[in-house]
């Protein structure tokens, strides 16, 4: 085993797991395909979130805002121009051009990522300076600001009415490709110089600072990168569902993604991927349980699925606060002593 | 006109101070940023709805009982096992508790908002010092004011209050000096339950309805107020909440209509700025004890 192949084991294994999701989704009926595609989009998002949280040890509750930025950008760029004239009849003068622009689906995806990256750049200076609970509150406040603007700027964002009429350009295959790409990028960053320095800052902030690592700068880099990946997830989400509402990018979505990343283990990329897929499956099962389809009995009152999901999260936090994977990564062959020991040394994240 | 505005601003300020105090107390003693606080309020409002046909004091009393019971239960079942956990883990756990309680409310009687007919005497208006003031505003000021004074007395003059403040200052040191964690933590939850119960009575009367997601807004107000005022000191937090309420009343009166919808965006941007520039809060001293 060379060092290189040990390093590549984890991302290849993870991509292999997402390929299984692709295979299951393609083989099953349309319902299964839908669930599989959405779970692949969740993988993209959670890998994005993990690129920041996993390396820095700082939890973010605001990443859904980047997803919203990606989704809205895609909507502006791909909804057919005639329809846009109707949907955005009251655009202010300075934004008239929004009703005219139109790009191809792939250009829209790239621009969505770029817009999310810009949003990340704007907020990065704040994130670089905060850690622990402060960061948790600040990222949540960021989500609330974005939600408030999207929900209230009715002339431009349609407020609480849904965006409709996006052409469907995301298929299960594109979702898989995006997930594989996200995993590759996430892993590349994690093993890069900046990623390793950021992880050093996660283990011991002051020791890393003393060793000459600008933890804040690396936090900012990871933040922008993760914003970009989450923007990609938002773009895919919008062009898969073809219609979405601002409420899809608020606390319940945040909660669902937090469950995924915490359940899998937020310090590890493998945890992020496994958590995203596992919780997607769990959510689908709970939904069917709530509808009564699973037991064959009558439907349970709405809210049952959420209640069970919350209980699962609580149980995880009590029994295994660092999730199923902890700080470990999936490997087949236990080579690379250096890597393994590095991975097991994790105890607490930064900020405590 | 001025008098009316003053009374409504003071009323809102007192209510917000009450909400903020609940958040700050839990943060000080436990390091817990409790997002389930809104659902403790919801429990109180829920009781108001259940007992809406009884005389008002029964409903208000049951609101207190329900809120305290839910606060204690959440401590027992969720936060007790996590007592030594990282503050961020605690915050995630409180998210989970919040969602669980909301789901229970949705599953039972609140799939959608329900109205509570306000007591008729609340909607009357009376003459005070030449101004026309609604009884509701006066009741808000009175109830919240009395509660705040009571909390100040409890925290300042009683043994329990001193223990709570010691625990908020330095939990481990306080424990070494004989403050029993198993006494102060549940006590903090009981006080928070009472505060939330009173808050829920006022909120239910002001809104005239109860819904499963009604806890979100007051909880966020509490968080913003606590951060603005400085979470390490309860006095600072209460003052922060009061100012937040007064400023909100001011903004609602004087902000142009187009911008009122964006009030929250301004508020939370200010929150982020405060976190970055003055993490110890606007009103407290130099001591930093956040996370």
UniProtKB/TrEMBL annotation, chain A:
The chain crosses the membrane at residues 12-29, 35-52, 64-83, 103-123, 130-150, 170-189, 220-243, 249-282, 303-322. This is Branched-chain amino acid ABC transporter permease. Signal peptide: none annotated. It is a multi-pass membrane protein. It holds the Pfam family BPD_transp_2. It comes from Nocardioides hwasunensis. It is found in: Cell membrane. Keywords: Cell membrane, Membrane, Transmembrane, Transmembrane helix.
Automatic annotation (TrEMBL), chain B:
Coiled coil: none annotated. It is a multi-pass membrane protein. The chain crosses the membrane at residues 5-29, 35-51, 56-73, 88-109, 129-155, 183-206, 218-247, 259-277. CDD domains: TM_PBP1_LivH_like. It is found in: Cell membrane. The keyword Transport applies. Keywords: Amino-acid transport, Cell membrane, Membrane, Transmembrane, Transmembrane helix, Transport. Its main location: membrane. InterPro entries: ABC_transp_permease, BCAA_transport_permease. Belongs to the binding-protein-dependent transport system permease family. LivHM subfamily. This is Branched-chain amino acid ABC transporter permease.
């Amino acid at each position: 085993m060379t060092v290189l192949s040990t390093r590549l084991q984890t991302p290849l294994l993870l991509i292999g797991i997402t390929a299984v999701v692709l295979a299951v989704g393609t083989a099953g009926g349309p319902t299964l395909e839908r669930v599989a595609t959405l779970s692949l989009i969740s993988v993209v998002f959670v890998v994005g979130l993990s690129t920041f949280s996993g390396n820095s040890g700082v939890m973010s509750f605001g990443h859904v805002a980047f997803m919203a930025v990606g989704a809205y950008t895609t909507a502006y760029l791909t909804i057919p121009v005639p329809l846009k004239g109707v949907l955005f009849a009251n655009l202010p003068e300075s934004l008239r051009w929004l009703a005219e622009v139109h790009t191809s689906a792939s250009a829209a995806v790239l621009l969505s990522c770029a817009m999310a990256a810009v949003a990340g750049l704007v907020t990065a200076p704040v994130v670089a300076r905060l850690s622990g609970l402060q960061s948790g509150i600040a990222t949540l406040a960021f989500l609330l600001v974005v939600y408030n603007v999207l929900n209230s700027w009715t002339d431009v964002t349609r407020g609480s009415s849904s965006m409709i009429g996006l052409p469907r350009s995301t298929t299960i295959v594109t979702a898989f490709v995006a997930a594989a790409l996200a995993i590759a990028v996430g892993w590349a960053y994690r093993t890069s110089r900046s990623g390793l320095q950021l992880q050093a800052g996660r283990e011991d902030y002051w020791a890393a600072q003393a060793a000459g690592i600008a933890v804040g700068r690396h936090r900012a880099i990871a933040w922008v990168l993760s914003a970009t990946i989450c923007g990609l997830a938002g773009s895919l989400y919008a062009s898969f569902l073809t219609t979405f509402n601002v409420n899809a990018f608020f606390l319940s979505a945040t909660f669902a993604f937090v469950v995924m990343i915490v359940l899998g283990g937020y310090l590890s990329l493998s945890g992020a991927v496994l958590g995203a897929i596992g919780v997607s499956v769990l959510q689908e099962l709970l939904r069917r349980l709530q509808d009564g389809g699973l037991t064959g009995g009558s439907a349970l009152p709405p809210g049952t699925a959420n209640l069970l999901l919350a209980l699962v999260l609580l149980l995880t936090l009590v029994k295994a606060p660092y999730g199923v994977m902890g700080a470990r990564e999936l490997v087949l062959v236990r080579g690379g002593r250096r890597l393994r020991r590095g991975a097991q040394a994790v105890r607490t994240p930064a900020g405590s | 006109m001025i008098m009316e505005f003053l009374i409504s601003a003071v009323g809102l300020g007192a209510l917000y101070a009450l909400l903020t105090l609940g958040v700050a107390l839990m943060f000080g003693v436990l390091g817990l940023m409790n997002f389930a606080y809104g659902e403790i309020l919801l429990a109180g409002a829920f009781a108001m709805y259940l007992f809406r046909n009884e005389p008002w004091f029964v409903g208000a009393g049951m609101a207190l009982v329900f809120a305290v019971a839910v606060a204690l239960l959440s401590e027992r079942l969720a936060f007790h096992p996590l007592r030594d956990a990282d503050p961020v883990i605690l915050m995630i756990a409180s998210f989970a508790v919040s969602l669980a309680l909301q789901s229970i409310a949705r599953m039972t009687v609140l799939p959608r908002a329900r109205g509570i007919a306000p007591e008729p005497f609340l909607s009357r208006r009376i003459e005070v010092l030449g101004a026309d003031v609604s009884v509701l505003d006066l009741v808000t000021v009175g109830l919240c004011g009395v509660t705040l004074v009571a909390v100040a007395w409890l925290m300042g003059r009683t043994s329990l209050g001193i223990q709570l403040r010691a625990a908020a200052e330095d939990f481990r040191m306080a424990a070494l000096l004989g403050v029993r964690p198993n006494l102060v933590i549940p006590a903090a939850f009981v006080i928070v339950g009472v505060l939330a119960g009173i808050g829920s009575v006022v909120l239910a009367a002001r809104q005239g309805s109860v819904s499963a997601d009604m806890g979100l807004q007051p909880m966020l107000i509490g968080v913003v107020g606590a951060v603005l005022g400085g979470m390490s000191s309860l006095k600072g937090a209460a003052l922060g909440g009061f100012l937040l309420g007064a400023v909100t009343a001011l903004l609602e009166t004087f902000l142009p209509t187009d911008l009122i919808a964006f009030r929250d965006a301004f508020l939370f941007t200010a929150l982020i700025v405060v976190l970055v520039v003055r993490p110890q809060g606007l009103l407290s001293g130099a001591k930093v004890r956040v996370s």
